[in-house]
Write a structure and sequence with these properties.
six-stranded antiparallel β-sheet
Length: 332
């Protein structure tokens, strides 16, 4: 069963990604929004990172307030003069609940939004922020409990035990075959032993030795994440100039990646239907590379950038490993 925050706001005040992230940072909440978030255009699941390491997210919907308030006088009264409604929904995950609440606090604080949980009468901004902090504290408590119930190697980020286990699991892929390679939005490599490798930043060395690189867009977005993480108030003129320079390069980077993906698809058409893994390497801390039998040194490399949004996920039957930058975490 889903839960929904109705956030009534004037359409002229709906913030951009940069503005919303700045507002979150000013409140001292540790939530990193999806760098592809686009106001008004975003519909569906929006991932984010809570407390620098916890994957979370919520369903987001934008629509005119009258679509929500029609036939519901209590909602019409709550909406007041606001002409737009942002709906943030989640199911049972308290991490997702916390992320939605943090966004609602930022919208209420800096953009005059009215926040209602499931159509209930809104409370004060002070109470909204206090409730949000309580939920975040519960997330932190749950994370600590999870660590206690896990084995020692699971409870320690970046421990040698985790690294050794990760290398062991990778070695087990030798002589397994690739079931499928999906290039839609993410690179997803499904492997015959019911494991998978997923990444947003990757490259392919072809059988002829040329390099196909799909990293332009992700690298720019990762730069934006790094830039936003340094904002506690409004950006300085230098940060503003950096942001604008990156923003102006995104469209070209996206087109460049799209062309590279098409070349990658063409290369895959020349490969066997189920290529067999010859060798797999972890170039610490941030690159995983697969080589294949009878493919003349062709390889696929996945890269982990500093944000977990652009990390590498390796999923086995028993574990999920996440690489981001120079960090590795494991979930059982």
């Amino acid at each position: 069963m889903s839960n929904t925050l109705f956030i009534f706001i004037n359409s002229t005040e709906v913030p951009s990604l940069r503005s919303l992230q700045t507002s979150i940072n000013k409140l001292d909440f540790k939530l990193q929004l999806d760098p592809t978030y686009t106001a008004f255009d975003d519909h569906g699941y929006s991932p984010c990172v809570l407390n620098n390491s916890i994957s979370a997210g919520f369903e987001i919907t934008y629509e005119p307030a009258e679509n929500i308030t029609r036939g519901h006088p209590e909602l019409r009264e709550i909406a007041g003069p606001n002409d737009y409604c942002i709906q943030l929904s989640w199911t049972s995950s308290i991490k997702d609940y916390a992320s939605a609440m943090i966004v609602s606090c930022a919208l209420a604080t800096d953009y005059n939004a009215i926040v209602s949980f499931e159509g209930e009468k809104p409370g004060s901004l002070k109470k909204l922020i206090a409730n949000t902090q309580t939920i975040i504290n519960e997330v932190d408590l749950n994370e600590e409990k999870n660590k206690i119930t896990h084995t020692e190697c699971e409870a320690i980020h970046n421990s040698d035990d985790i690294k050794q286990l990760f290398e062991h699991e990778l070695r087990a892929l030798i002589d397994e075959h690739i079931k499928s390679i999906n290039l839609d939005s993410l690179l997803v490599i499904s492997i015959s032993n019911n494991t998978s490798l997923t990444g947003k930043t990757y490259s392919c060395t072809t059988t002829s030795g040329s390099l196909i690189d799909i990293s332009s867009y992700s690298n720019l977005r990762a730069e934006q994440i790094e830039l936003m993480s340094k904002w506690s108030e409004e950006p300085s003129p230098e940060q503003e100039a950096q942001w604008n320079a990156i923003e102006n390069s995104l469209d070209a980077a996206e087109r460049e990646d799209e062309k590279a993906i098409e070349k990658f698809r063409e290369e895959l058409n020349c490969w066997p239907e189920k290529p067999v893994i010859l060798k797999i390497e972890w170039h610490k801390p941030d690159t995983v590379r697969l080589y294949f039998k009878d493919l003349n040194n062709a390889s696929i490399s996945l890269y982990a950038l500093n944000s977990s949004i652009f990390g590498i996920e390796y999923r086995t039957e028993n574990y999920i490993f996440n690489l981001s930058g120079n960090k590795i975490d494991m979930i059982k």
